[in-house]
Amino acid sequence: MTEEQKLLKGANTQKLEKSKTKSLPKEETKKIGVSKTRAKKIKHSYQVKDAENALLLKLKNGDVVIEMFPDVAPNHVKRIKELVRQGFYNGLKFHRVIEGFMAQTGCPLGNGTGGSGQKLKAEFNKMPHKRGTVSMARSMFPDSADSQFFICFDDCDWLNGQYTVWGEVTSGMEFVDMIKKGTGQNGAVSNPDEIISMSVIADL
Questions:
Q1: To 5 degrees, how large is the angle CA 142–CA 148–CA 150?
Q2: What are the boundaries of each domain within the chain?
Q3: Quick one: which of 126, 185, 193 has its CA closest to 157?
C-alpha cells in the first residue's frame, strides 16, 4: 500500500449535508418566472386591439383569443373579466355542445343549472351572432344571464337581439371546432371537454 493510499484510508470523511432548500415548504420556494421582456413578447404575439379587453382561452387542442366588446356590453365585459381574474372558469366543462350551432360553458355544476350568483341586466345589441361570436346564455327571462356563455360554430341569425353578444373569437377558432360534441338531449355532452384556463391578456 502506498503512502498516499494509507493517508486516504485513514482520513476522516465527511458526509455532504442535504440541500436545505429541499426541506422548505412549497410556498417558500420560488418558481422560475418569465422575464418582463419575454412576457411582453408573449402578450404582443396575440396581436389584439386592446389587451385589457381580450381573453386567452386555453383548450386541450390549442389557444383561443377572444376580443371583447366593452362599447356595446360594458357590464357583461366587466363581469366576465372579474370572473376570469378570480379563476372562476378554469376547469369548467363545455356541458352543452351542438354540431353546427354552438358550444356552451361557464356552469360550475357542469350541467347548465349553475352560475356565479350574480345576474346581469341584458345588454342586447346589434352585434350579429355569426361564426366565432361569444354571447351570454340565459333562461327565458332577459335579465337572467350570469356566468354561462356560448361560442357559435356557425351563423345563428335567429339569436340576434335576444342574447347579449360580448365578444368574438379572433384566433384559434379551429380549436373551438374540436370541442367534443354532445349526443344527448339538447346537446348534453358525456365526459365533456374542459376549459384549461382563461386569462385576461393584459395580465399575462
A1: 95
A2: 54-203
A3: 126
Residue range 156-179: mean pLDDT, rounded: 98
Number of CB atoms found within 10 A of residue 188's CB: 15
* Residue 185, pLDDT score: 80
**Residue 180 dihedral angles phi and psi, to the nearest 5°:** -60, 130
All three cell numbers of 26, joined, read 412549497
**Cell reading at 139:** 333562461
54-203, which class in CATH? mainly beta
pLDDT averaged over every residue in the chain:
87
Could you tell me which residues come within 8 angstroms of residue 137 by beta carbon, excluding any fewer than 6 positions away? 104, 106, 112, 145, 148, 149, 150, 163
What's the pLDDT tens digit per position in 67-87? 999 999 999 999 999 999 999
188 grid coordinates: 348534453
For the stretch 111-146, pLDDT in tens is 999 999 999 999 999 999 999 999 999 999 999 999
Q: Give the chain's largest Cα–Cα span.
A: 96
Helices (H), 67-167: 74-85
Grid cell, residue 56, equals 386567452
- SS3 state at 74: helix
Q: Which residue has the cell 335579465?
A: 143
CA distance 132 to 130: 6
* Amino acid found at 88: F
Query: Cβ–Cβ contacts within 10 Å for residue 128, how many?
Result: 15
